Amino acid sequence: MLLQKVHLDGGVGGSVTRFLRYHPINEFEPFFESLGFRPSQYRHFLPRNLMFLSDDELLLENFNVLCNYGIPRIKIGGIYKKAGEVFRYAHGVLATKLQAYEELGLDRSFMSKMIVCCPSLVIGDANIDFIKSIDILRKGGIECYRIEEHISEECSYNWSHVHALLNLLCKNGYSELLGGLLSQSPGVLFEDSGDRTLSLIVFLVKFGFSMNEICSMFLQFPQMQVGKFLLNMRQCYLFLTEIEMEILEIGNIIRSHPLMLGSLALKKTNSLLSILNVGKKRLCDTILENPQEMKNWAKGSKVRPLPKSGERLRSRMLKNKFLLDLGFLENSSEMEKALKGFRGRGTELQERFDCITLAGLNKKVVCEMVRTSPQILNQTKDVINMKISFLVNELGYPIVSLITFPAFLCYTIPTIKLRLAMYNWLKDQGKVDPMLSLSTVIGCSDKVFLKRYVQLHPGGPEFWQDLKKKFDSEQSHVV
Fold it and tell me: How far is residue 357's CA from residue 365's CA, in Å, rounded to a whole number?
């Protein structure tokens, strides 16, 4: 690079000498390059008023201390980047700090690697959490050279977190297992400074695992990152909740198959329901009968539909009976349309129907409501009860309002609240009839509602957007 700038006139030596006489080199540039920095990386490290390394005695002394300690020159750049103050230490300070670690029985080879990973070890006083962590490991029969083998220079370790994990294991009497863990699954101890392992322990404890069971699992840990294992377990838990498995049953599966679930990256729930061609109840039953079946549903695997079950036929018969009891004509187009529109098992339809009658409407009236709006029974029993309570207790409408507007049960509560808030604002502005029925305000499409109501007032669109932001914020806060 230097020769590219030199105009060769005669011999190379003379030309270079002449060039340097009028263009002296900033010695800090090749110095930082030798530490592994690119020009774009070291430019802001260059001192403003110095050109010669000999003018910065502290930088050179501390650099030489690290070199003499056994740290490769190319790796000192990382220390400079993470802990530049080390190179400003006064005479003898850095050597004293390094000597302090040696006096604790930590040899130079080990400490050289530790300092490259964690330059903070030579900032301030000796790192107590680091010393305690190494002490716990050595008491567990682990020599420093074995620890060194499993520490990555690509990582930066938070030793207070590592110590928290090691201390937890030792307090529960598992210090003798540390050697086995280090040999088989070093990531359990050191990945992300032990944070992922602590998160995994908290997750498992919530499902009733004892520390004995957790440590036993760690000794059989698969060859994978702890963070990925934890992510897989959480996704399996989410999958089981999304197919509406009972929480106690989920807990039993997690407790009995933790290694399988942690090693398994499942396909998405909707994809599995579609590919397997089953409903949530059938899928739950399949898993409860044989949890190992889940291994066939991993990402990248070819999933085949489950064999047909007699449950579908039984459910169809119950739905037929239910609709016949409501007054539908057998084999009629009306009945076929209702059968196709219903979601859920036959027994569930009767439970949902009973929710509405128990709220205060007689059976004959509810039968007619279902005939005109069969989709109201696609809501779960809990959702129907919640919406009826909202209608009566929060909106102040009588239960008989459902007779003329049964489709009320199909709208979400946030949608109802949002539209009524807009309608009430328009009433206050004198822009709408104050006696409109609930079905008129709620029972139209979003496009029609915007045109028919929101745009009635010049400030309507802005107020509508503000309302939506407010309701979205409240919903996210609840979540």
Answer: 9
CB neighbours of 191 closer than 8 A, spacing ≥ 6?
Answer: 197, 225, 226, 227
What tokens appear for 330 in the block? 């057998």
What is d(CA 124, CA 164) in angstroms, rounded to the nearest whole number? 21
CB 419 within 8 A of CB 441: yes
Q: What is the pLDDT along the chain (479 residues), one digit of tens a residue?
A: 555 555 666 566 666 566 666 566 777 777 888 887 877 777 778 877 777 787 788 888 989 999 999 888 888 888 888 888 888 899 999 999 999 888 888 888 889 989 988 888 888 877 899 999 989 888 888 888 888 888 887 778 889 999 999 988 888 777 777 888 888 888 888 888 889 999 999 999 988 888 888 888 888 888 899 999 999 999 999 999 999 988 888 988 999 899 999 999 999 999 898 888 888 888 888 888 888 889 999 998 888 887 776 666 677 788 888 888 877 788 788 777 777 767 666 678 888 889 999 999 988 899 888 888 888 888 888 889 999 999 999 888 999 999 999 999 988 888 899 999 999 999 999 999 988 889 999 988 888 999 999 999 999 999 999 998 887 766 543 33
Residues contacting residue 29 through CB under 8 Å, at least 6 positions apart: 39, 42, 46
The tokens for 68 are 């003499």
- Identify the sign of the CA torsion 76, 79, 84, 89: negative
Measured between alpha carbons, how far is 70 from 138 in angstroms, rounded to an integer? 23
CA-CA distance, 465 to 450, in Å (whole number)?
Answer: 11
Residue 27 φ/ψ, nearest 5 degrees: -65, -20
Q: What DSSP state is assigned to residue 393?
A: I
Phi, psi of 10 (to 5 degrees): 95, -140
Q: Which residue has the tokens 């003798």?
A: 176
Written as one letter, the residue type at 45 is F
Closest Cα to residue 153, out of 103, 198, 121, 118?
Answer: 118
Contact indicator for 137, 104 with CB cutoff of 8 Å:
no
Nearest to 169 by CA among 118, 225, 219: 219
